[in-house]
Amino acid sequence: MKIADPTTGVSPRHRMLSRCCVLAGLIFFALAVPAWAQHPAAKTTADRPTVRVILFVPSDRRPPDDSLVGLNKVADLTDRLILGGIRKWGFRTGEPSLFQRVNGVVRPIIVAGKMPAKHYTKPSVHKEAIRSALQQNGVIAQPHDVWWVFVYVGEPPERYSDFRGGFSEEFGGWSVANYDSRMSRINIDAPLASGLNDTIALKGTIHELGHGFGLPHIGPKSRLKRGNTLMGPINAIYRRISGDQSGKAYISQASAAMLAIHPIIRGKTPSDTRLIPTKVSNARLISSPGATAGFQLSGRVAAETRPLVAVVGDHHEKRPGEYWTKHYIGPVGRDGRFQVHVNEAVPVDGEIKLWFLFDNGTMTADGQLRGARGAITLPYRFTAQQWQLTSP
Ligand SMILES: [Zn+2]
């Protein structure tokens, strides 16, 4: 908002009038948007795709005084977990942070809700939050931004509980979770699923951001002994079923491969992000010796642009739930041939979900839907100590 310059050659009466108008405007503006929501940093524009952090505060709440500290701790931890996890698996990252930082600090976009806290219980809150950020806060989005909406409905035990994330045609990647005022006190060096980090559902918060990046549910691999996966089951269920009380959590190799092609991780926007349909031929399973050692899926993929990586989700029928689905990856050769080794297979029937990662940051197999939803399904049987595809 521009305030009139009193040194201009306007007559005293007009000056008085214009001052009244400015004053009235200021009062109106103050009523429409609370002072704490008039955040100058909210107008800054990133020149590359980033994760956009929104702190959404209903009309009858005020943001906690130390929310900047809390959100920056969460952002620092997330950078370390995601970017560190990607590099640990040998993939490249083009940027030092998922976020736009000014002097190292992430400035959240603080958005005032139109309604009181009790109104905001559903994930659709992300729509009001993102639209307000774009319209009222003047944020200019990049096409591949991922929105991370934190909803603050009050001090614990009050909390926003319907955590979600995904992709929408309107906003691209989005996710919504609770802002817990105890985030300012977390220890970012502590295991992700332990102590206060566990109490405030920090893994669940970042898990939803993972969905915003297009990640499906991906379960932990017991042989790695690295605890739960970011995209795996919720902490309490993981502890009960696995018996692992370490509180550790990690980014799976398949997640790292999917994240590594995303424009935010690469730090650049691809010119063409169409979903590319694929055709898979000669798909077959070769069981490794000893039956329980696993199997290898091989085949050949044809597409307008050759994909980089093949992804296999092993949906066998003994999984404790979808969150436990183990995923495996393998490179796609110049001739389109690929091999993916499933080394924690279970001797039961199941089905494989197969899809591909492309250089333009997309993932699909059918060219219609994104990620796992656009996968090819290959049912298999375990019979005579061998895994076999039921329909080649
Ligand atoms: Zn989920």
UniProtKB/TrEMBL annotation:
Organism: Crateriforma conspicua
Protein's UniProt name: Peptidase M10 metallopeptidase domain-containing protein
Keywords from the named record: Signal
Highest rank taxon of the organism: Bacteria
Range of residues in the leader sequence: 1-37
